[in-house]
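Lecture notes, structural biology module. Today: joint structure prediction for complexes of two components.
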Amino acid sequence: MTDSPHVLVVGGGSTGTGIARDLAMRGLDVTLVERGNLTHGTTGRMHGLLHSGGRYAVSDQASATECIEENRVLRDIAAHCVEMTGGLFVQKPDDPDDYFQEKLDGCRECGIPAEELTADEAREIEPYLAKDIERAIKVPDGAIDPFRLCVANAASAQEYGARIETHAEVIDVLVESGEVVGVEVKHDSGPGKRVHRTPGSTEKIHADYVVNASGAWAGQIGEMAGVEVAVRPSKGVMTIMNTRQVDTVVNRCRPKGDADIIVPHETTAILGTTDEEVDDPDDYPEEQWEVDLMIDTLSELVPILKEARTIRSFWGVRPLYEPPGTGTTDPTDITRDFFLLDHDDRDDLPGMTSIVGGKFTTYRMMAEKISDHVCEQFGIDATCRTADEPLPGSEDFSVLRDYMDEFGLRSPIARRSVQRLGSRADEVLKTAEPNPVVCDCEAVTRAEIQDAIEQSGSDLNAVRIRTRASMGNCQGGFCCHRMANELYPEYGEPTAREALDELFQERWKGERHALWGEQLSQAMLNYALHATTMNRDGDPAATDEAVDFAAFDGGVVGVEESESGRSSATAADGGTVGDGQRGER
Amino acid sequence: MPIREDVVVVGGGLAGSVAALAAAETGASVRLVSYKKSTLRFASGLVDVLGYPNSDGPVSNPYAALSSLPDDHPYSLVGEEAIRDGLSLFDEVTGDGYRGGHTDANALIPTYGGTVKPTARYPDAAAAGVASDARPMLVVGFRSLTEFDARLVSDHLSAAGVPFDVRGAELSFPKEFRADAKITRFAKALDADEEVRFAGRSVGAREALAETVKPRLKRAERVGFPSMLGDDRAAEVRADLESHLGADVFEIPMGPPSLPGLRLEDALFSALDDAGVRISSGNPVVDWVGDGGRIAAVHVDRNGARVPYHADEFVLATGGLVGKGIDSDRDGVREPIFDSYVPHSSDRYNWFDENAFGEHPFAKFGVVVDDEMRVLDGDGDRQFANLRAAGAVVGGADGAAEKSSSGISLATGVVAGRGAGASI
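The predicted structure, tokenised, for the full assembly:
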């Protein structure tokens, strides 16, 4: 079918899409395959922190320096994905003074703008900080939307000719004569955009070079090629609050520990995290104590968290890696640095390189380095331009225009849409059709949903990550089925129904970790709306057994309807009179 | 002068209203105390009795399925007669507004999710839509209403195997509202029959709507709309549309804000007025006083002041998790006014099922009662001599899965209200 690409990238997270974009911009023919949605793995399951580098300023100054450099780059090239909230490292009475000073010095040594604040000054920025905090360090931490960023990278790669294939799981790495020559993938519903209820197929994609950027799953891809990549997956929990209790990233200023960061993110705040090694990145326990730990420990920094409404929790798996023989036992001690494993050098298997370790904030730099490495294999001398060229959505986007009149949107909705879309706002929002709000919690309009469906097919989870629809307080209770309605008529009823079921279940999955108080009420309301009012759980269309309609009430028999003067013609047994006997009215 | 009544009912939803009416019928003086708007605005307005007992169904005869329910199910406690009594009280209250009383069989009513669901009583406005009627159907939606796509609903109904031809049409409402106008705005325009420009002339909204639909009618003998056909003058709006269209017109119940739910609330409150029930709304009951064995009064919080409402008998009808009659935090589940016993696992990860539509223990959370609806403590003894419960605050049934929520409210409401009145 298609020509063999030069490079096949495995993994649709930040690193994979970053590599695809970089290589495509340098003129290479690239195909990216991802087994789920873009961001399906680790990228879609992080707290959205754009590091200033402050976090690593004591323990790992090389990483800290990279972070602040990339922080500046991303503010520039991904403006529509970034909110520069600023960050605070806050000292509590039992947090060591020495460490506070080391942090301050470390930041300065790494070129991170850092300012010491008194407790009063810190509380002026964040009024909900605990009364007993002693002082704080202010750094340029920010929040970044990993979904939007990845989608923009993939879109840019596509603009440069790359093929982006989601829902394409690698089932084999093709090795011929001791060399990697491509991969075999299983398409969930045929190549291209995903369509529910269409049979899948497999495809062998031959490529001149394979980049394994599958993160925590790199070991599994390695195994298919017959090489060992000893990734150590480490899970961490994130708990989402329903409002922004803080508008600044708040970190606890102590050496290390679980539950030490709060990141304001869009309409929410995200509490993180734990760090615990797991055996299988696809199968690990998601436990109650982890959620409790987030709330209990972080409410020491921001006490109102104890009473606040939690909307869901999710877990991510870090692709930690350390060179063989280091023998670190505590995953928090494993370096966050990344490693480029050229399997030719390492395992005498030419044609493939794996990239492991690393962190989200420096994804672009990692992509640059591996792209340099790939270009070297091909003897191509092309310069990386990803630090200079804005991502789609962030080009020439300086002011939020008044979209209220222009697009007939109410101003807060227009503001949120335009923030999400950046420079694509014109293209997406200009529509002759009515553009009602589909998701009220996150103020997402039909035009945005339609734009996302155009990009990702009938996969409503992909629509969700592109638009934020169904990610607010109601967790989709009020909007999942509206999103499914938007699939019609391009996709038929069975497809829309299956897409709805899938999204509803996905939303439930994370919400069940927050089922107490307000969110339990919400869950019961959602359940009642979908089960009682819509009867989606007893849907006759979804069961094999036919309903005996004749056994049910066929309406009132023989009652004159005085207002219209007509009578119902339903038969007494609940059966009915056929069309032919009735004639036209 | 203290506020004193024979019976105080706490809660103003379906169960509380029915309990108050049943108590009033015994001759007792009754006061109904409600806090926020009732959850009827979230409810479809359909009155389900039992559609899926023990995950089987849909069953056509709810009464035939009662014996299969577990012993601690509210229906098993009150028995079939109480269900029938609850429904006949409901029929009295709603009069011509509701149908279904002519038969024991459930009706299958189209839902806005495109399915059909079994229900015992349905608003007159929904009557022409029953699924066991072979007349061809047209379903109409409006492009700006995101919660309802008529074409998808009609395809879904066909997939459910309904015994009639059904087509869907997405139209533009003849009057332009803002893109995200709510259902209530459409209803208001039809209630008032607002003048609109249509085909070059000025006509009422009802006629214009009918003319918009007419070209799509073809052979259809009944036309379904999302439930938006008027609020105060719904019957008149529907009759006007029917005479313009020459076809029956019906509404498909929708999610919140639900006009059928709000209309039902109006009907209940006017029946309460007629029955002489005093209503105090807008403030929450927060506490009680008494000697432990008996409740002497409940305390209503009015801007921080605690006002006692004295009575001989009390009925708790504050709703379940949605209505906040049952509350929870990370450590447990409780009934917040009387701290009545609510059975639940101490591990909150046992409160739910992994599957979105699985068997959720949280759906059954509620207080425990005996066959007279008296609230029991953890040992199975009466918590107070004079406290009964009704509706979703009573545990033991997953009304959403069974399609039994409204029937439980009616049956337990009648038993609790009548019992309270009879004890005076």
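Point to remember: The first strand of chain A starts at residue 7 and ends at 10.
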